[in-house]
Amino acid sequence: MKGALIPAVLAILWEAGSRAGLLPQDSFSRPSAIAAAFVHGFADGTIPRDTWLTFEAALAGFAIAAVLGILAGVALGLSARLERVVGPSVDALRPIPSVALIPLALLVFGFGVRMEASVVAFACFWPVLLMTQSAVRGIEPRLLELARSLQLSFFATLRKVILPAAFDRIGVGLRLALGISLVVAVTVEIVLNPRGLGHAMIGAQQALRSDLMYAQLLWLGALGWMLNHAAKKVLP
Predict the structure, then answer these.
(1) Radius of gyration of the chain (CA)
(2) How many other CB atoms are found less than 10 A from the CB of residue 145?
(3) What's the rounded Cα separation, in Å, for the pair 185 and 198?
């Protein structure tokens, strides 16, 4: 409850300033009007629909990045020789902004969820990869020696030894990637892809519906908070 104090005070000041004429109505809609627009957007189904479209791409990209990032991170963490070969390529690709891949993804996949998910997956892949690689390097060597003496396969070693021993640190990478997935998905929708909350916000801004735009923006912030809260419950 204490965490809601600052937002409540800001909303009261915002409403009072708007009614007093201190804030321009065309760019600062009243909180009461924003709340009304939010209720109407939920009632007519547009906000839930756009939310699902954004989450569809964000979670699909996150899932792809989680699987590939963990597998690649484990492989690089276990093999110093492989890390020396692949490391320079990782260092060259990792700094590329994910939004810079939008033209390429559009050329390959066209508009839609696959294009958006591919950009999200690229952005989410790196924190999962790096945290997994670091976590695997920190595993007690005797555990890996035991797995080799038992002649466990790679996937058996992954399931029985590596993931239980390194899951805490891998979970940090997954939590970071989950937050990034929502940010990148909305960014792609704002920049180019005509779907989801990002595109809806641009449409509201172009229609001079500042109340609806603020409603979607605040809802997006609430979604990010809920996503992070859920991740804390599931991941370490």
Answers:
(1) 22
(2) 10
(3) 8
Do the Cβ atoms of 195 and 138 come closer than 8 Å? Answer: no
The whole-chain average pLDDT of the chain stands at: 85
User: Which amino acid is present at 208?
Assistant: L
Q: Are residues 31 and 50 in the same domain?
A: no
Is 214 found in the same domain as 183? yes
CA 174 – CA 108 distance, rounded (Å): 27
**Quick one: 177 and 129 in the same domain?**
yes
Output the DSSP codes for 70-119: HHHHHHHHH-HHHHHHHHHHHHHHTTS-GGGGHHHHHHHH-SSHHHHHHH
Considering the domain architecture, whether residues 87 and 26 belong to the same structural domain is answered as: no
pLDDT band at 236 (very low <50, low <70, confident <90, very high): low
Dist CA 9 CA 139 (whole Å): 48
- Counting the structural domains of the chain, the total is 2
Between 39-48, 157-166, 224-233, the lowest mean confidence (pLDDT) is in: 157-166
State whether 24 and 83 are in the same domain.
no
On whether residue 40 sits in a domain, the answer given is no
Judgement on whether residues 54 and 150 belong to the same structural domain of the protein? yes
Q: In this predicted structure, what is the pLDDT of residue 56?
A: 93
The 10s digit of each residue's pLDDT in 99-116 is: 888 888 888 888 888 999
| 186: its two tokens | 């909305």
**What pTM, to 2 d.p., does this model score?**
0.86
Same domain, 18 and 123: no
